[in-house]
Design brief:
Elements: E1 4-7, E2 24-26, E3 41-50, E4 58-64, E5 67-72, E6 79-83, E7 87-97, E8 101-112, E9 115-123, H1 137-147, E10 156-157, E11 162-163, E12 166-167, E13 175-184, E14 191-198, E15 201-206, E16 213-217, E17 221-229, E18 232-239, E19 247-252, H2 255-274, H3 284-307, H4 314-333, E20 344-347, E21 352-355, H5 363-367
Antiparallel strand pairs: 1-17, 2-6, 3-4, 3-9, 4-5, 5-6, 7-8, 8-9, 10-16, 11-12, 13-14, 13-19, 14-15, 15-16, 17-18, 18-19, 20-21
Length: 378
């Protein structure tokens, strides 16, 4: 039987390797304009400075479905790319500088090739309102979506991908064919199982043990071949370097069915590589609406603080103190026998006897030395 082969020649062309979500790159030509097929810019955050690497340069932070891209608007050759798979930690914080004051910043810790990178992307717009807005919310939203959709992009061995003997279908995934009687030639005795062919990946699982399985996205296939083996004609799949560089062999009888499956996989792989589905679906309209609502809430909160600010009228306190002092002063200015004697009376408010208060004064004026109820000045 003539050997058939379908190859992407990824080994001969390293630039075609799927690296965007798995690498940290610096200063690559036209980084923000040369996106991979299927890569989409989901959000653009303006007026952002790479405070650690390029302080003083205002740039833009692009949030794609695979990575974060920052590029300078001052020096076009300065840029960087952070794949989501390399992010170890991320958070927002408030940073202070003598020039710009207090601003919001995005902190990212990335690890690539055993090297730690720390990034600080600072808002340099100068807009006071942006300090209270979640301007980096899209980064966290997309990153979480990326973490939950790895089966679209990465080879997975022995994963929880089946339930009651059926493949767990992912969003936008369609099953095209099920092939039974597929021998996995990874061991000397072989393992009998089944293929599930979808528009996103090729899945094999053992009939005797469903946990012994392989989920292989077309994105991680380097080459497909039919070649002779000691078991007869076999389907040989070479995975990409980012997929572990495995060589997988499968035998299917009869040979005609093997040939049909080979053609189907080649066709699906070709279609998928033209427009891959990375699994990250972000509702930009909803995100913009949530940001607008957050801005409105921040504005209302600021207005609430102003409207509820109470200015205390100190004149009330001065008035009470003045009456008490005046009352005492009048008693001191008229000492002597000619001063009329005021007979004591019983005061119900105080519960004891006291001298009668002079005309023009009230008990409250003398008793409430400090005001108890302050009025708000309109």
């Amino acid at each position: 039987m003539m050997s058939l082969m379908y190859s992407l020649n990824k080994v001969e062309q390293p630039e075609n390797l799927f690296w965007e979500d798995k690498e940290v790159k610096f200063d690559r030509p036209q980084l923000h304009t040369r996106l991979r097929n299927g890569e989409k810019i989901l959000d653009t955050i303006l007026h952002i400075e790479d405070s650690k690497g390029n302080p003083g340069d205002t740039g833009r932070l692009l949030v794609t479905n695979l990575r974060l891209i920052w590029h300078s608007l001052v020096h076009k050759k300065f840029n960087l790319s952070i794949g989501y798979a390399r992010i170890g930690n991320t958070s927002t914080r408030m940073v202070h500088s003598k020039v710009r004051g207090t601003n919001q910043a995005l902190y990212i810790l990335a690890i690539s090739n055993e090297t730690r990178f720390e990034f600080l992307f600072t808002d340099v717009s100068g807009e006071t309102a942006r300090r209270e807005l979640p301007i980096f919310a899209s980064v966290f939203d997309v990153y979480q979506l990326y973490q939950r959709t790895y089966l679209y992009r990465d080879l997975k061995l022995r994963g929880a991908i089946l339930q009651a003997g059926q493949l767990i279908i992912m969003p936008d995934e369609q099953v095209y064919s099920n092939v039974q009687g597929v021998w996995n030639l990874s061991s000397d005795q072989g393992n009998l199982g089944s293929f599930v062919v979808t528009n996103i990946r090729l899945v094999w699982y053992a009939d005797a043990n469903e946990t012994f399985n392989i989920s292989l996205p077309y994105l991680q296939i380097d080459s497909l071949r039919i070649r002779e083996s000691k078991y007869g004609p076999a389907l040989v799949i070479q995975t990409a370097e980012t997929g572990g560089g495995y060589v997988l062999g499968f035998r299917i009888d009869p040979a005609e069915r093997l040939s049909e499956l080979f053609k189907e996989l080649c066709s699906l792989h070709s279609i998928y590589t033209e427009q891959p589905n990375f699994g990250v679906h972000y509702d930009t309209v909803d995100a913009q609406q949530r940001l607008a609502e957050a801005a409105e809430a921040a504005e209302q909160a600021a207005q609430f603080k102003i409207e509820n600010f109470q200015e205390l009228d100190e004149r009330q306190e001065r008035e009470i103190n003045t009456k008490l002092n005046t009352y005492l002063a009048e008693g001191c200015l008229n000492p002597g026998p000619e001063q009329p004697t005021r007979e004591p009376i019983y005061c119900k408010e105080l519960g004891f006897a006291m001298e009668r208060i002079r005309d023009g004064y009230k008990l409250k004026d003398l008793w409430d030395v400090l005001p108890t109820n302050m009025e708000t000045v309109e």
